[in-house]
Write a sequence for this structure.
C-alpha cells in the first residue's frame, strides 16, 4: 500500500456471520465488493450493481439489504449475514433443501439473495401465505425460473418450520 492509498483508507470493524472482521476500506468501496474481495465470501453475488436485481442481498442487523447500495464504511459496527452464514457446515438448510427439491434455481446466480430474503421472511413470519412470500421476494429478480418454484420452495420450508 503506498502513502496516498493509506491516506484514503478507513479502518472499520464489522461482524460477518458472527465473526469480527477488521478491514481497511476506501470510502467509495461497496459492501458487496468488500465482502467478496476482502472478506473472501463470494457467495454474495453482484449483478446489476445499482440496486435493482437483489442478487447482492445480505442481512444487515437482520434486515435484507442490497449490499451494492451500501458503502462498506456504513457497515461499521454492524452484523452482516451472508449466504455462507445461513448454510450449515455440512449439507443444506431446510430452506436450501426446499429450493433444491422444487428446482427453484437454474443458473443459481440469484439464489443467495432469494434465500436470504426468504430467511428474513420466515424468521419474522413463520407461516406466510403465497402473496406474502411474493411480496417479500419482490425485490429479487430471477431470469431463469419464473418464480413459481421459488415460491413453492419457501412455502414448503415454512410448512416445515423454516431452518
Ligand atoms: S447487484 Fe445489488 S441489487 Fe443488483
Ligand atoms: S436461477 Fe438463474 S437468475 Fe435465478
Amino acid at each position: 500500500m503506498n502513502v496516498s492509498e493509506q491516506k484514503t483508507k478507513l479502518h472499520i470493524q464489522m461482524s460477518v456471520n458472527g465473526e469480527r472482521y477488521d478491514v481497511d476500506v476506501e470510502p467509495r468501496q461497496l459492501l458487496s465488493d468488500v465482502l467478496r474481495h476482502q472478506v473472501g465470501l463470494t457467495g454474495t453475488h453482484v449483478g446489476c450493481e445499482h440496486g435493482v436485481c437483489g442478487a447482492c442481498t445480505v442481512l444487515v442487523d437482520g434486515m435484507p439489504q442490497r449490499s451494492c447500495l451500501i458503502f462498506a464504511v456504513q457497515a461499521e459496527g454492524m452484523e452482516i449475514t451472508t449466504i455462507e452464514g445461513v448454510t450449515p457446515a455440512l449439507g443444506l438448510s431446510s430452506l436450501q433443501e426446499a429450493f433444491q427439491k422444487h428446482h427453484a434455481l437454474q443458473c443459481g446466480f440469484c439464489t443467495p439473495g432469494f434465500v436470504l430474503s426468504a430467511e428474513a421472511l420466515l424468521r419474522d413470519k413463520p407461516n406466510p401465505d403465497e402473496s406474502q412470500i411474493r411480496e417479500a421476494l419482490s425485490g429479487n429478480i430471477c431470469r431463469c425460473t419464473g418464480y413459481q418454484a421459488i415460491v413453492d420452495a419457501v412455502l414448503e420450508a415454512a410448512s416445515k418450520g423454516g431452518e
The first strand starts at residue 10 and ends at 16. The first helix runs from residue 3 to 8.
